[in-house]
Amino acid sequence: MRSKIAGIFLLLILTVPIAATYTFFSLQIRQIRHEVKERILSGMDESKLTLLAFTKPEANHQLNWEDKHEFEYQGKMYDVVRMTTRGDSVYYWCWWDHKETQLAHELETILNSAATHQSGQQKNQYRLLHFFNGLFCTDLAGLPVIAALRALQVIPEMRWIFHWHTPPPTPPPQFA
After folding, report:
1. Bridge-partner residues for 92, per DSSP?
2. Residue 51 belongs to what H/E stretch?
3. Element (H, E) at 109
4. Which of these, 25, 83, 17, lies nearest to 49 by C-alpha position?
5. What confidence tens digit (pLDDT) does each residue in 49-67 have?
6. CA–CA separation, 172 vs 75, rounded Å?
7. Cβ-contact 51, 61 below 8 angstroms
């Protein structure tokens, strides 16, 4: 029972920070989108809008759509106020969303640092494991000091130490 509780607690410790960060950013993005929608509905000054023109294939290839009125282009988030199509060209009158762009970059930075930290953690774990493996001697009989003591039989009452890790005879003895 205690091990189940400890396992659940450990799982919570590992997942809550990730879930909390994601929830925090999601709520901020939702709030920013609501503010932008209110600005667009109240009428924006044309001078604050950015005109982006693309051919239809370029628009399909270069724009990463978040939803039907918002896309990312060259690392910047844009909210579409108006769109027109003339022939093969598409014109978007957009409002460059500075806040959401900054928030997206912060989230990307956090995710990249977490991935880098995890990679560094794996290297540190490998080094620590290698260090601890070096601390323990698995073959006492192979040490020069032990071999010399065995040859001199300095400590006859502790012979069991010298035979503790000796490998079995090769080939194994055959019994008749």
Report:
1. 52, 83
2. strand 50-55
3. helix 98-135
4. 83
5. 889 999 988 888 999 888 8
6. 69
7. no
